[in-house]
Amino acid sequence: MLDAARDYAHLSRLEIDGAIAELEAHRTPPDEEQFVLVFMVMPRELAGELHEFHLLSVEFSDHFWPPVLVDEGELFGKGNCAHAPVLARACRPARETSVSMTPEYRPLLQIQRDLLALPRGRARFDAYTAILQADLTDVPVPLTIFNPMAREHVAGVLDELLAIEADALAREALREAAERLPALPGARTMRVSLVVADDERGGWTDRYLTDARYRFQDAGPAKANWMPALLWSSEPVSAEKVREVVLAAAWRGGYQAARGVPQTLAHVLVQEGGAARFGGAREPGLEAGDLAFTQQVLAPLRSATDAPTMVAAFYGDVAARSVGHTPLGLSAWAGLALAIAEA
Fold this sequence. Notes:
The protein is mostly helical. It has helices spanning 78-81, 85-90, 109-117, 122-133, 152-163, 166-180, 207-217, 219-223, 239-259, 265-279, 288-298, 307-315, 317-322, 334-342, and strands spanning 45-46, 57-58, 99-100, 102-105, 183-184, 189-197, 226-232.
């Protein structure tokens, strides 16, 4: 909705089922350059730059879990579960009719770079929404994370990724994933795409809420069979990081195809520990005492399903305070570090 300057404006996130909203055709007075998007409205906001053209990101509410998309089925086949005790406890033998999931890479990096080559204003935003609405039966879901109004620093990250041929690296990583991923019930193709999220400047993206949404909150990507492989503008570009996030996205897609989007903290830890191990991630890590403390704090919370607990447990106190949730006394990324240690 379009409100007065310096008031609150909520922008909605993508509705995978195809409902769309049209852009407001009337021009607003100066300093009220805001748009209605094709996204779902949620009650958390991050102000942008109020003195100039800006966008406002609205993330998830305190009760954000969607309905279970599929019945809990086999996570992975026996042979692929034995290496990880926590995963092994969650696995059951695959059905005889199981077939391998096919991960497929869809390149979106050049599209992101081409958008940022346009003048920063209405024309660029119109081009972005045109891409999202071009085919509502096959929306490029990862692009909903991308900030089309990002500045030069994001264009620089995209230039670096294109220079190291990140798309080719991602395809090779998915070929590896296809060989390593276990059998899943029924035929399935999971599209994976690299996307750059801006966590340095602007109000489009909150690091923790966006990260939670793409890891374990949003049912949309799993429902659309399209998983983002997320890179952050604040982090160095490397071939190793591209491989890590693409393999992790493939694992995450496999987990959610078999079990649905995680509904409890325990399932989040299983999914993300497995994804990190599959991608070869070694960080974040905690010292032995801190790890034991984290395990003790989270032990009675593993059945939790509410957003404040999930965010505070997985990301630690800095993240919890930044989004207005009660901290649990945990180090940064403590839940992920525990998940990796237990996988």
